Amino acid sequence: MFSSHPEPPPELGADLELDPEEWASQHTYTLIGSLVVPRPVAWVSTIGADGRLNLAPYSYFNLVADDPPHVMFSSIGAKDTLRNVRDNGEFVVNLAGRGQLGALDKTAESPPDDSSEFDLCGVTAEPSQRVRPPRVAEAKAQLECVLVWHAPAGNGHVVVGRVVHIHVHRSVWSDGRVAPALYDPVVRLSRRYGALSAELTPEEAPADHALAQ
Ligand SMILES: Cc1cc2nc3c(=O)[nH]c(=O)nc-3n(C[C@H](O)[C@H](O)[C@H](O)COP(=O)(O)O)c2cc1C
To answer: Which residues are in the Flavin reductase like domain (predicted)?
Structure first.
């Protein structure tokens, strides 16, 4: 028994020590999801065997290599995105700004009929350069990916893809790079959304080279 509390107490009289196996899964989900923040959100577009387009947000998402670039996301349970990626090996990570947040949030629901989430949330499917799934035209940037590896981990299924094409919208570029304040991607914070518009001042932050990873 490594845990100090059998369930989340309203207040902590002493630090929490937890073997995650000892809490009900809903409590562990809430705790870990509020600790690993902010999480970038991959708005993943895929295409089904029947040609139907699919679009859904995944905040269990990150960069795993940069030469060549590789990204990962994790599907909690068997979902359409995972099925499509396993079937045809391709996906696009669309990176949304604040302007697309309403649409992105809507795509966490399944469309009522045979329509796709692109229709449900009213975004434009634009042809990709290197893969069959289209990209979301309104997104600030898009990473076209091919599947290199997938495997289960806990209740998740991890998908790693190699980025074969990168598209950056001209509006987020300034002074030779992606300008954080212009890009301002939406992120997942605990149960809320946030944005990265506030950069730390040079006095608050360590030098850039210390931040390489
Ligand atoms: C902001 C946000 C982030 C999400 N992140 C994940 C995630 O990382 N993994 C996951 O399995 N579901 C995640 N979901 C839920 C899926 O988007 C949802 O189950 C969706 O219906 C899956 O669609 P699909 O079946 O078309 O792939 C997230 C939902 C939201 C709103």
So the answer is: 34-180
d(CA 189, CA 200): 18
94 within some domain: yes
Quick check: CB of 157 below 6 Å from ligand 1? no
Instruction: Pinpoint the alpha helices (H) of the chain.
Output: 25-35, 80-88, 101-106, 117-121, 180-183
Q: For residue 21, is it within any domain? A: no
Q: What is the pLDDT of residue 201?
A: 75
Q: Give the residue, by CA position, lying nearest to ligand 1 atom 15.
A: 108
Residue 50 lies in a domain: yes
**Sign of the alpha-carbon dihedral angle for 210, 37, 34, 19:** negative
Q: List the structure tokens of 48.
A: 């089904």
Distance in angstroms (rounded) separating the CA atoms of residues 32 and 18: 11
171 Cβ below 6 A of ligand 1: no
Which CATH number fits the domain that encloses residue 188? 2.30.110.10
- Number of domains into which the chain is organized: 1
Confidence of residue 2 (pLDDT cuts 50, 70, 90): confident
